[in-house]
Amino acid sequence: MDTHPWQRPRSKSINLEKKFAERTTCHGLGHIVDQDVPKVRRYLWSIVTLAASVGCMIGCIQLLQYVLSFPTNIDIEIIHQDSLIFPAVTICNFNQLTKTALSEEDNRHLQTFLRIYHRKGAINKKDLELATSYFRNKTGVDFHLQNLTQDLGHRKDDIIVSCLWDDQVCGPENFTTIFTIYGNCYTFNSGAKKEGMLSQRGKGSAHGLRLVLNIEQYKYSGKLSYGSPDAGIRFAVHSTADLPEMDAEGMSIPPGMHAYASIPGADVIEGLPKPWGQCGSQKLKYFDHYSVSSCRREKEIDFILQRCGCVEPHHARNLTPCSPEIMLECVLPLMSSSNPVSVGINASVCPVACVQTEYNVEVSYALIPSQVVVNDISDQYNVTKIIENARNQRLNLTMSKLEFIRENFAFLDVYYKDLYLFKTIQKQASGFVAFLSDIGGQLGLFVGGSFLTMFEFFEYIYDKCFQQTKRSKREISRRMQSIREKRRPESMASSTSVRGNLSTNVHNFKVNESISSHNVRSNGIKSKFRRSNSEHLANIRISPSSID
Q: What is the span of the domain harbouring residue 54?
């Protein structure tokens, strides 16, 4: 008896699995289907193969999780260089305005403005109106702190007494003026000059920057509103791409001191962008180079500019600085009620630059001058002439040369003590190629497989799908054939019955038709007979006398 199509033994399918198990390079499967070994050993191979497959799968999942965590490594390289790019050096005087060009009335009204700009204490609005009217009448224009500081602040021609770079003479013309919270500040090697950035070609102070500075303490205004209570120089060593954060990163030199700012080398940090790292960059509107400080400064500028129509004077650059009235009515209330998040300053908006250069400065100090070289220093740096100029400006100077130098002079040497480049590089710990290698290691360790083994599995799946498709088509064809075979006898019987019924109906129709015609003829004879009888009876009724 023939079995149903889908109940037939799947010998071909079994042969396909057995053939795959015997030929695959994946160890273990061949031993499981080997009929020449005892069943116990095949069961043992089945357990071992299953355990190895599970271990391989767990290892591959852990590798995938590791790759998706975007791991990184940190490589540190120390490279000795013949020369290193010299950093930018910015110097500021602790005192913001000099008293030589200011009258007592100027000082009184300036203190009103400076308390606003420096955010020191409460301000009387009437005092502000008086101060604004006073300077408008005196200068013919509205008061702006930046313009006043440029005119009345310490000038670089007066501060920089001597400048040597790599034992070559330099001067105030090699410094770029910038405006900070300390007023006028001056940057050496800012990168703004056409000749580009300077490089130090030998280690030691003789190959670096050496400055003799006159802090002009005899010109200090004596008003706390004009700056810091300290006397001396504030300086910062920074990358040419960064803005000098004088208040946060600056170091100080008191008068009468020689500061030795030695740099072990340049620290270059190279990071990775997301998702491996946190670094990034963006195009800035107000600055040529991206840095965290520049980005934060720009966000703060835009925040104030959009709401007040101007910016704080030390942020002005080419923008409109805020007048004292706007500072009092808009900027100060706005900034006091805001925080860095509301301003839009956070790590995601201003990420660290992907390439940063930092300088770890080591500062040591020595007292100047020694008594035996006072006259030499006085002659070399024209101290006598400086004293005479100060007296001509009606400044009371009754001190000796030694006292004058210790009260007003500061020496600053900035240099590399070693020409080393310290590179800290963040690199991807695992890439696509490494991931494939690790996966291959897991396959080889647990199941003895490889990339070609995976292709064998794909080939088996393809053959299996192809076989199933052919079997499905064959079963469908068999079912259709079986249905047609079942319907054929019924159709033949029904067609014979139809033909018999049709013949019988035709015969009955003919018999009925002859009977009908016979009946018609009989009915005609009967009609004629009835008519003759009727006529005969009528003749009898008409002649009764004949009866008599």
A: 10-70+431-465
CATH number at residue 52: 1.10.287.770
Distance CA 235, CA 90 (A): 5
Same-domain status, 445 and 406: no
Amino acid at 314: H
* DSSP of 106-129: HHHHHHHHHHHHTT-S---HHHHH
Most confident of 82-86, 123-127, 221-225, 533-537: 82-86
CATH number for position 92: 2.60.470.10
Instruction: Give per-residue pLDDT as tens, 154-209.
Output: 999 999 999 999 999 999 999 999 988 888 999 999 987 656 789 999 999 999 99
Same domain, 369 and 444: no
Statement to judge: residues 94 and 178 lie in one domain: yes
Structure tokens at 152: 């009345």
pLDDT (tens digit per residue) in 372-386: 888 899 899 988 888
CB atoms within 10 A of CB 309: 11
Residue 238 DSSP one-character state: E
Q: For residue 119, what pLDDT is reported?
A: 67
CA distance 348 to 458: 45
Neighbouring residues of 480: CB distance < 8 A, sequence distance ≥ 6:
none
| Three-class DSSP category at 146 | helix
Name the residue with tokens 């009977």: 515
Number of domains in the chain: 2
Whether residues 220 and 164 fall in one domain: yes
Pairing of strands 209-214, 84-85: unpaired
**CA 66 to CA 95: how far, in whole Å?**
56
pTM of the full structure: 0.73
Residue type, 78: I
* 232 Ramachandran zone, left/alpha/beta (phi>0; psi -120 to 50): left
Plot region of 144 (φ>0 → left; ψ -120 to 50 → alpha; else → beta) = beta
Give a yes or no: residue 347 inside a domain.
no
**CA–CA dist 84, 362 (Å, integer):** 17
Q: What angle do CA 74, 80, 83 make, to 5 degrees?
A: 120
Tell whether 66 and 169 lie within a shared domain: no
Half-sphere exposure of 301 (CA within 13 A, CB side): 19
d(CA 423, CA 77): 5
